[in-house]
Each structure stands twice: as C-alpha cells, then as structure tokens.
C-alpha cells in the first residue's frame, strides 16, 4: 500500500489558538460604544415583548434607536478620520 504525503507546507503557518489578536481587541474597543447602544436598544425592545408598549417604553425605544444611530455615525466618522497605514 502506498501512503500519500503532502509535499507542501500547511496553508496556515501559525495555528489558531482561539484568542483574539491585539488588532481585533482594539477594533472591539473602538466599537464598544455602539455595542452598548445596541444592547440598550435590545433591552428596551425585550421589555415590550410580553406587554403592550406604553408611552415611557416608546420613549425609551426611541432614545435607544437615536443613540444607536448617533454611535454608528460617530464610528463612521472616526473610521474616515483615522490615518491609514500607520501614518501619524
């Protein structure tokens, strides 16, 4: 019986260890205000699942939506203002 062996190196040179890289952690940290705003919106929506939304609930959802939009805008503006390629 002939065994077939790979003649090339493995495609992934560095094995994945399951931990995020420093660049990924920095990206998450940059997006944290948006993540918090989306969690706040989700919490406001969950409250209204088992009962009709009253005026206070509607106001809370409206504020949370506005905060999500503002954070998305801020994140987009930061992305366009940051230097590309490590130039300072």
Structure overview:
It contains two helices and no strands. The chain has 88 residues and is an all-alpha fold. The protein starts with 21 loop residues before the first helix and ends in a 7-residue tail after the last helix. The model has no long low-confidence stretch (mean pLDDT 85).
Which helices and strands occur, and which strands form pairs?
Blueprint: H1 22-47, H2 55-81
Helix pairs in contact: 1-2
Strand percentage lies at under 5%
Judged by helices, strands and strand pairing, the structural class is mainly alpha
Q: Looking at the structure, what is the overall shape? A: elongated
Which radius of gyration do the C-alpha atoms yield?
23 Å
What is the number of E strands?
A: 0
Average pLDDT number: 85
Low-confidence stretches: none
Number of helical segments with 4 or more residues: 2
Question: Main sheet?
Answer: none
Question: Cα distance, first to last residue?
Answer: 61 Å
Percentage of residues assigned to helices: 55-70%
Order of helices and strands: HH
Tell me briefly what this model is.
By secondary structure, the protein is mainly alpha-helical. It is built from two helices and no strands.
Features:
single chain; 88 residues; mainly alpha; 2 helices; elongated
